[in-house]
């Protein structure tokens, strides 16, 4: 039974923040071994206090619009979020109410950080295959609101310019498919669990706080010092450890891959993932597609924002094999293989 993506949509804040607005962080970047040009050229910022709710509801409604469906056509709703007003509860029940899904439709929240969207699609696909009479269509939506609400990123840290707000959504079904979900793979690197956390901390550079482009959040995403050395020594090889296993499970060879669409942890890390995969398995780095300079790091949503842009631009040929590669902060590193219709 083929299950795949019937429709894909995005919902982005109108406010565009450009790299130059983070000029106050240039000395800190250079002291940390980064060039200012490593930050994305621009990304989006949600301004409303209820940013995460606005983004998820907006993307959900657009996914229904592009597929010409109504809430009554959906049998499972899955939400993945980072940021916003509340760490708890999950937003799925609120979206369920505001958009008007039938009472019997489950509303799940999946929180695996930046792997969440891929993981949610894998879970929803399993449900559609397991109970096809009950679950005909699922809607998966992922959103990130780093820059507003009660928790997010420290605006005096080097992570500040890298992260943006936005949402993507897909309708999964066995009908009218853009692409089939062929298979899913993951590998766990749990040693990094304590190194990226949401916590109450003082600003990293308090002397810069009054020059920041957004207010500091009450609780902030903290990157502990061991993370980046680990990432540059071991994490940059995740592409060559996870993607070949995905291809083997899907019965493909590296030469069969047409596109790789990654999570955008950071632009220079994406480049290293692509380089290492080319060196180890011969998949050309030119086959990678990202939207780093348009959106930055949008957590679990960014790979699917890129995919939506590729669909809108008719940039995926019929029969193409597309790899979604979404490693995550807590060490849950996922990939999904799509076969384009």
Describe what this molecule looks like in 3D.
- The protein has helices at 26-31, 51-67, 92-99, 116-130, 227-233, 238-250, 267-281, 292-295, 302-312; strands at residues 4-11, 15-18, 42-45, 76-84, 107-109, 138-149, 151-153, 166-173, 179-188, 196-199, 219-223, 259-262, 321-326, 332-340.
- The protein is of the alpha/beta class and 341 residues long.
- It folds into two domains: 4-178, 3-Layer(aba) Sandwich (Peroxisomal Thiolase, Chain A, domain 1); 183-216 and 224-340, Thiolase/Chalcone synthase (Peroxisomal Thiolase, Chain A, domain 1).
- A nine-stranded mixed sheet has the order 5-4-6-8-1-9-14-13-12. The chain has a three-stranded mixed sheet with strand order 7-11-10, with no helix packed on it. The chain has a two-stranded antiparallel sheet with strand order 2-3.
- The longest helix is centred in the N-terminal third of the chain and has 17 residues, at 51-67.
- It is globular.
Structural class: alpha/beta
- CATH architecture descriptor text of the largest domain: 3-Layer(aba) Sandwich
The number of helical runs is: 9
The level of helicity is 25-40%
Largest pleated sheet: 9 strands, mixed
Fold topology:
Blueprint lengths: L3 E8 L3 E4 L7 H6 L10 E4 L5 H17 L8 E9 L7 H8 L7 E3 L6 H15 L7 E12 L1 E3 L12 E8 L5 E10 L7 E4 L19 E5 L3 H7 L4 H13 L8 E4 L4 H15 L10 H4 L6 H11 L8 E6 L5 E9 L1
Helix pairs in contact: 2-3, 6-7
